[in-house]
Amino acid sequence: MAIPDKLSDRVEYGDYQTPLCFTRSVCEKLRHFYKFEPTIVIEPTFGTGNFIDSAKSVFPTAKLICGIELNPTYYKYGIKRFKSQKASNKITLYNSDIFSFDFSIIRKQLSDKDTILIIGNPPWVTNTQLSSMNSRNLPLKDNFKGCSGLDAITGKGNFDIAENIILKMLHYFDGFDCTLAMLCKTIVAKNIIRDMPKLKFNVTNADMFVFDARAVFNIICDAVLLVIKLGVGTATICDVYDYDTNQKISSFGWKNKCFYSDIAAGNALSFINGTCQVEWRQGIKHDCAKVMELTRNGHYFINGMGESVGLKIGKYLFPLVKSSDIKAHVISETRKYVIVPQRYVNSDTSKIKTQDKSLWNYLVRHVDLLDARRSIIYKKAPKFSIFGIGNYSFSKYKVGVSGFYKDPVFALLIGEHPIMMDDTCYFLSFGKMSDAIITTALLNSDECKTFLKSIAFLDSKRPYTKEVLGRIDLRRLHEILPFDYVRKFAHNMKGGYNITKVQYLSYLRNVR
Q: Among residues 84, 127, 228, 350, which one has the fewest Cβ atoms lying within 10 Å of its Cβ?
């Protein structure tokens, strides 16, 4: 029977079938590393059935092997594959959607003496990717990660389908003698461990084995075998091993109620961990760069469609910094400008019609593009609305950082007009230039950067978030960095700033 090989099918189902040699290797690792002999094996997305085949061979004590698969072609292939095999009597396959499957069908076959193994390779695709394809292969929108407000709508609500499946399986079999062993992207495994305390599963142990995804799946991606043992306890630290050698690499997780992506590095600088005295803000979200972002051409500005626009800087048009622009410690000129139609979220935009007729006509001319923005946040907002805007956006002095790059660079933003940042960036606002300069020096210190790398997931798309940055205690950082360091850093910045001892000592009185 033919197996689907269309690219669209592979993307929609996150379809990276695990080679038989690797499924066998995973089963052997579980058997020997953990001395594990399950009586029940469950594969929630069995695909072509390689994990089922390997589990049948490596775990002869298994009396029941259950597989669930949405794709009807894979399901029929599995039925045909195992029909003639000797162990077919203990293999039960279901053609069903894992997100709506009734697991009581399996649970009622279990006894207190059973040892369960949940194994497999769930789809490597996000819910946002599937939504953009109008896919039916989506979980119910139950906000399973517990995001609230705008976070649930814009960004934090995005998740890997694998993450949803793994958490659902842990939920279904919490309370049983159960081990989950799943192949997934590294960031998925890390997110699960990070969220474990609020999920309240009874976790005895958690480990992660790093393997070469390019060698196994011919894709470039950080990937792991995640192994979680349910039972008794509340394990909050995950040990990381090399898949091929079983050599321990590191540990990450929760310690003293704080999360660290690297426990060892975090221990060394844990005193910096706290709450930032100034609130970190995310930059402007507009979702229509062709219209809202402009480049300068003499006295005119050019939009993303090559149209020329006559606007004035300072009222509704401001300099803009994007992630790729943050390369130096001082930014005073920008290559981009952004239209800012509001001073705060959901404020009335109709007054633009009388205050700046050229801008109003420009926005009306492109109303179809602005109305076509897909996010729900724009649906009930005033015409031409943006988000991530407030009084803080118009501060003359800011310290900003990109959320994207592994090695953070904190930049002082200072110019004739307030410099805006886009929503890939985060910033602090200040009323005094000396406070902004001192903060730039503190945040760019080796101590701060090492601490940040110990609490951030550097392999994620956005390592540095508002939550991560908010853990930098500026007061404690100030206490460990001498005045001479700050003075020299400020002097070496573009513009050669002079910070006095008085300004340094009064810093904490100003930054609250």
A: 84
